[in-house]
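Have a close read of the entry that follows and walk me through the local backbone shapes. See right below:
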Amino acid sequence: MDNSNSDALVFFGATGDLAYKQIFPALQALVKKHGLDIPIVGVAKAGWNLDRLKGRARDSIANHGGVDEAAFAKLSSLLQYVDGDYREPGTYTQLRQLLGKSVCPLHYLAIPPSMFAPVAEGLAKADCAKNARVVVEKPFGRDLASAQDLHRILHEFFPEPAIFRIDHFLGKEPVQNILYTRFANLFLEPVWNRTYIESVQVTMAENFGVQGRGGFYEEAGAIRDVVQNHLFQVLACLAMDPPTGEDHDSVRHEKARILRAVKPLGAQDIVRGQFKGYRQEEGVAKDSQVETFAAIKLFIDTWRWAGVPFYIRAGKCLPVTVTEVIVNFKRPPREVFPEKTPGLTNRLRLRLSPDVVIALGMRVKLPGERMEGEDVELIAKHQTGSEMTPYERLLGDAMHGDQSLFASEDAIESQWRIVDAVLDNATPVHEYEQNTWGPDEAIRLCADPGGWMNPASESVAGKG
């Protein structure tokens, strides 16, 4: 595999929901802002033709950001289409003909993992896999064993440097901002360790339910849906050591290293919850034990983080929709002033969505003669606007051969190893009321003096 740019883009699942919501808008942005000018071949079994695919693309873009007529005209001229069964050799024969002189295509598999093997084999037999790259969507398996099976299947036809495992969360600007904030500011490094940090909390809250996707959620649950992938990647960004080089793999190596050091979860480290009313959703079993909420406590077995608890929770039908990190610093070793201050007063708050906030919490003196204070935050806030969308960024990186923002085989298997023992019904599921912060058992899981820090809907967080 060389470092040349991809000279064609093939995306399987061209008529699907992901293509409609994400891929077509990203392709227009790549044409408009980055000069994308290579053949783009959609593949699906839908009985469509090229004109219908172009119509679908236009409708997609109109509903997800708006059509730029010049850019769409260019995109439309690049589009081609193959309608065929993924298991039929003729599908790949047509594809090879449309690729023409392409010698370094990028194949994006926006299809279920069960189809990875027949598609990869079909590409190889039709001479479409040589010197090619392949992008695969999550989920990367359902547990450690199935993830390892998927990796074996892909490695039969593609070397590891040619495999791009896409997690759109890694393409989000706020997630990258965690790394930038940590490693571009020297003052953080001396206190970013067990000596000064009491705990770390990561919350991903949604104030809505499964939104008609009950059948999907029955197969996933909160742990598989967002904890094992998205939030463990946030954990890696928070806990990793500085990368040692400027190559594409340096950040990925450090993430994988820190994830290998996370201790596997036991039953005592997790609380699963299910919001009241979930079992009445369409596609959900009447006796479902699938979690719509999960809270975990984990530890990282390294010199830097020994003994520091990392608390992670994610759930649906919570009071707000927000993703936020709280880094709690220890209290001073001796209280100079006689006032009694509850809990931990120094913290770094990183809000990842819906807006981007970096806030430093500290205690300052109240006006007056008495030496008493109050907790305040120094806030830097950024409204998202013109940033690249995750798929625009990640598809562009894949075409350039840049794996920095893609999950590695080692990291994914480490993430599954952490949760493997507590998947499915290994622990009981506790019912919780909608518009609350989950079951009481989750509250007791957090041993911080102030408990969980519950994000508020506005920029300044409230305390739980």
